Amino acid sequence: MNLFITFLLLIIGFVLLVKGSDVFVDGSVSVAKLLRVPAVIIGLTIVSMGTSAPEAAVSITAGIKGSNEIAISNLVGSNVFNMLCVAGVSAIITPFVVDKTVLKRDFPVSIAVMALAVLMAFTGSEVTRVEGIIFLVIFVGYIAYLVRNAIKNREKSNNNERPMPALKSVLFIVVGLAAIICGGQLVVESAKAIAKAFGMSETLIGVTIVAIGTSLPELVTSIVAAYKGQSEIAIGNVVGSNIFNITFILGLSSAFTPIAVVNEAMIDNMIMIAVNAIGFVFCLTGKKLNRIEGAVMIGMYVLYTVYLLMR
User: pLDDT tens across 106-116, in order?
Assistant: First the structure.
């Protein structure tokens, strides 16, 4: 395939992913408002799953097609990007307070499932079907707990913004998902072709170009949320996306086909845990993320990218 056409298809794929996610999130958030769900729950569930749909489309498609390196490196790269860039840029725009529930419950869960994924990969150099199913069970249990908590706290929700009509909300969700699936297919095929043309490893392509491209919805959503002062959605989106990436996307991908983990990916996995632990510590200090901490996180991502290009 002509390289120009390949790049064009990659760009089209990213556009479909970003716009599809944008529409999907709008529809999902509208449904959440109709159900009177608190903002922090919106961030941890509907928004995080909606903005993680590109990662799901890319990694699950890659896993089914046997492109294991893209499948796992995309998730690892996205989790690093989410914590360092999405949270970092949001904090630079508007320093935000981190919900105490997120600090006590969701942040530790996020780091724990990442550590479990690394442990599983380290013990067998792959994530097996059984381990994938274990992640899916964790995902279902976590979501069930959040839903139960949301129902319990429905009357405490102060989200008074007028939602879209129910039919329009569902239409947005369906159209958004369709765009996300098509975009995911284009990104996987184009990324593989580019990696082959330039002699680059699929791990490098997955952890940089694909990871950043599929994380754009998280970045845009969290920046807008931070700008509007909706810190619950901003940090909830980051933490929820990271949990969703590991438990659902990695779980479903490996449930289809066991995912082998190369040595480079193991190093990236350790970096993923380290940067999320640092982000957790930053959020614990003063129970907020300030501009200086946000700038440090952006600097860390720049160094990480330089490391990826040099290795």
Answer: 999 999 999 99
